[in-house]
Amino acid sequence: MANKDEGLMAVLQLHLKWHKARLKFIDLLIITLIRERHVSFSRAASVLTKRSNLVNLRRIQRFFAQYTINFDAIARLLVALSPVKPPYRLSLDRTHWRFAGVEFNILCLTIVADKVSLPVFWLMLDKAGNSDTEERKELLLHYVRLFGAQSIDYLIADREFVGDAWFGFLAKLHIRYCIRLRANFWINYSHKPPVRLFWLFNDLPFNSARHIQKPVLLANQYVYLSGMRIINDKNQLEFLIVATYYFDACALKVYAQRWSIECFFKAIKSAGFHIEDTHLKDQQRLNKLLAIVAIAFVWVYRVGEYNNSITPIAIKTHQRRACSIFRYGLDQLNKALLHDDQLVRKYIQLLSCT
To answer: The Transposase IS4-like domain covers which part of the protein (predicted)?
Structure first.
């Protein structure tokens, strides 16, 4: 593996002004993670270097236990490696799982790409359940401090991310948002008595959209509404209603991109790196692991994007790709790591050409 990671280390060194030995170890971890498709330390130890498994394992454990990572630098690296250019559509959501009686709950902010999201920031929540307004503000302010509010085209989020204080915070920063609402919210509309939100869309045919051009008062904040009636995957009637900061007749199409963050979560879990199988219980160590996973994810995505531009992924009869860009990239990068050093160097150049 020694010759395969030199170019990757150069890319990391360009963005992370860290000690060379530390960067060398990080790129070994990234390549090992991609090869093994798993976050298991014991599996990584078996292929990390030519040293014994025990020596490799202890080296990995020391890294996660002792080394301090600058997560601002990681965020800048991830944005620099992304093929998406600003202004960005950001997606905000949580992923959570339980392992060995421990609850893992992570709030993530990502950049929307082609049917997937690319990670930028995340926050480890020390509780189960929904995030609160202060936690969301902390994450978004961290992004704004590094990249500026002007770099945000839209913030897209699901029904968890609502509330007077939250909407007011976004309005104060002039951040355009597209956030789904619960259909049973009360609203004030057109100087009439308060009504349930779904009432404005109850007469629509299925899958027909309505965009209300006058702002309505929701939780002491004026918002614009777009909505439709749909049949969900459980074959039940459901209202898809989103709130936006400005009127936008494309709001429902914008909101549809929220699904990209679910694809990211799936990729780092069961469809890719199996982060939910980690034995780490300490939040700081898990935070470091997610940083390694995030860098690997972006590289794999770039490889998939490149290969799809040369040999497009087959489209099945249901008009969906036979596999995701991420899975395509993971397969192609693994083949190259095993059999083609020259192609690995080509794939590393994808990162240095951003």
So the answer is: 91-298
